[in-house]
Amino acid sequence: MKASLLNKLDVLSDRFEELTALLGDAEVISDQTRFRAYSREYAEVEPVVALYAQLLRVQGDLEGAQALLKDSDPDMREMAVEEVRETKQQLVELEAQLQRMLLPKDPNDGRNVFLEIRAGTGGDEAAIFSGDLFRMYSRYAERRGWRVEILSENEGEHGGYKEVIARVEGDSVYGKLKFESGAHRVQRVPETESQGRIHTSACTVAVLPEPDEQQAIEINPADLRVDTYRSSGAGGQHVNKTDSAIRITHLPSGIVVECQEERSQHKNRARAMSWLSAKLNDQQTSAAANAIASERKLLVGSGDRSERIRTYNFPQGRVTDHRVNLTLYSLDEVLAGGVDAVIEPLLAEYQADQLAALSE
């Protein structure tokens, strides 16, 4: 393992001892804000330090076994050869685990997200495919125990959505969905096609982490135009009697968000402001992310919304992710919510890129 990584592990070990002492300090215990912060840090550092301690023990075992290679007893030397082989293999595995644990953590991985799906080229067929994608993500969310809440929808004339915006709430939502942003292409024979010809349509997906209070951008109320209108969404008769729907325009950027799914105008406004903050945050961070991705020649993780990331080919039952050259012949299972079959290889590739950068 590189000296720089070992030095980092030594620093973490020292910090772990500090945190252990701090969490036993009466002054810290009485300050819940500090206690919670130190507890979170302790929980992050403890498994790394424990694994590092195991690595040091195995290194000691290896040194002992190597010393036995010089023993005068041939049986002892034979045993030592086997022990050296086993401990070296253990060290390789432990070092790989530690390197993964030292990878930079994305602070947004644990956040909820705003999921935006928009029909692109292909007219009615693109809108129908938008509906297919939304169902796919909804079923995936159901499998993971997440909650999906539609904020805004514009239905297509023949089904699906010209645009659908949803908030997805649950454990590590952004960490799982962050590489879904981009252009998704479908190849199939539309139901309206009488000649049986295969058409190609496309939709764009954007996944934005929901900011917390500390991360939220401060927005000047003078920069906003707020319009209210009667909701056409769910909620029974009530939604048609009051101007509960909200449309907010951020004048400096031209970004428009709207929310109409809640009965309460106050709740719709809160959701719309949170979504606006997420979009402004994304606008600020995406340029930097693209620059880093370009510098490292990364395709996974660039987040370029115009990039064609995936093709769903219905005649062949095929899903292809173009970023990692992954092809699966399990289209039905993926659309039924089995998105992990695509997501996990992407996460593995991204992790490999990070490990390569860590070793530079």
Architecture overview:
By secondary structure, the chain is of the alpha+beta class. It has 2 domains: 3-101, Methane Monooxygenase Hydroxylase, Chain G, domain 1 (Up-down Bundle); 113-354, Alpha-Beta Plaits. It is built from 10 helices and 11 strands. It has helices at 3-23, 26-30, 32-68, 74-101, 123-144, 173-177, 238-241, 265-295, 331-335, 340-359, and strands at residues 113-119, 147-155, 161-169, 182-188, 199-209, 224-229, 245-250, 255-259, 308-313, 318-321, 326-328. The strands form 2 sheets. An 8-stranded mixed sheet has the order 2-3-1-5-4-9-10-11, sandwiched between helices. A hairpin with a 4-residue loop joins strand 10 and strand 11. The longest helix has 37 residues, at 32-68. The radius of gyration is 26 Å and the shape is flat. Mean pLDDT is 85; it is low at 233-240.
How would you concisely characterize the structure shown here?
The chain is of the alpha+beta class and 360 residues long.
What CATH architecture of the largest domain would you give? 2-Layer Sandwich
Question: How many E-type strands?
Answer: 11
* Span of the ends, CA to CA: 12 Å
Low-confidence sequence ranges: 233-240
Q: Taking strands numbered 1, 2, ... along the chain, how are they ordered across the largest sheet?
A: 2-3-1-5-4-9-10-11
Count of discrete alpha- or pi-helical segments spanning 4 or more residues: 10
- Mean pLDDT equals 85
Query: Approximately how much helix is present in the residues?
Result: 40-55%
Instruction: Let me know the largest β-sheet.
Output: 8 strands, mixed
CATH class of the largest domain: Alpha Beta
Number of domains: 2
Structural class of the secondary structure composition? alpha+beta
- Global geometry: flat
Backbone CA Rg: 26 Å
Would you tell me which CATH topology of the largest domain applies?
Answer: Alpha-Beta Plaits
GO molecular function, one term: translation release factor activity, codon specific
Protein name: Peptide chain release factor 1
Function: Peptide chain release factor 1 directs the termination of translation in response to the peptide chain termination codons UAG and UAA.
Modified residues (N5-methylglutamine): 237
